Amino acid sequence: MRFQDDGIRGITFYKQLFLDSNKLSWPQVCQVAKKFTPLLLGKWTDLYSEISGVAAGSGQSSSSILALNVRTEIAFGMFSDGCTALSWKYGNTSLLAQNWDWQQEQKENLIRLRIEQNGKPNIDMVTEAGIIGKIGLNSAGVGVCLNAIRAKGVDFGKLPCHLALRRCLDSNSRAEAVAALQSAGVASSCHILVADLEGGTGVECSSDDMVLLPMSDNGLVLHTNHFVKDHFEVEEKVQFEDSNARLVRTSEITNTAQPGIELIQRLLDDEDGYPVSINRQRTKDSTITTLFSVIMNLNKRCADVRLGRPTTAEQEFKLQPDLKELEAAGVS
Length: 332
Hints:
This protein is an alpha+beta fold.
């Protein structure tokens, strides 16, 4: 029942957000979402079937659950979840981490979602109730993070942002995930950071094009909420003026000490520029704050999650996509 309750509250949250931000009623939102139905039925029947299953299990209409999964595209690229993300490959270790910032009111609708699959890796992620692709990792050691980018444009013939995240989590390697994104395209602007045991690749997407960000010489990929590469005729609307400052700060911290989980945790805790810091706090003008923090150790196929702002975490838990498989392989 908790998932049903979270799903209903999540729909209530987005009903109000779309009405306030885009002047769209929920029936209008669902009509826009349905524009993706031909694509999903034609090329992504597994994703469409899962969305339909979530709808049946939560007692909501398929169009409402579809709307949650394509929420970025319905807003025509004009929502912007503020986030700071990085991947770091050093020695035999590959880490992937992020602070996810969004409206305070949506925190109660976050869930941990574990998915066991036949013929595909198992998945463990943190997501918004009803959304089948978000931030997490799989049993093959592939992880994904997301940075929203506020830019106009949507292509209903390409894979919606959150379903693109799910396609990455269905992959057996970073190369497979990136190739899948390049083949399918992504319907709206965002940055998807994909990593596996061999390191990370940033995928900057717009509705028109896609640009890859390789690892730096010291094994890093860093990103916040703006394009760092040129994109073809894309009109970007930077919502977070602090996005560049957070990117600079992330670079400063990662250059100060030896890589490791402790350094990344210090980075995610950072309050330089508070309240619009990497560790973000709501202000009188915005209810956007850090809702959770995650550090993934892809070699160990596990992640540590702190719910809430990381310096005042309300709950801590681990993601472990396939505990039985890990135990059999002797990974702990």
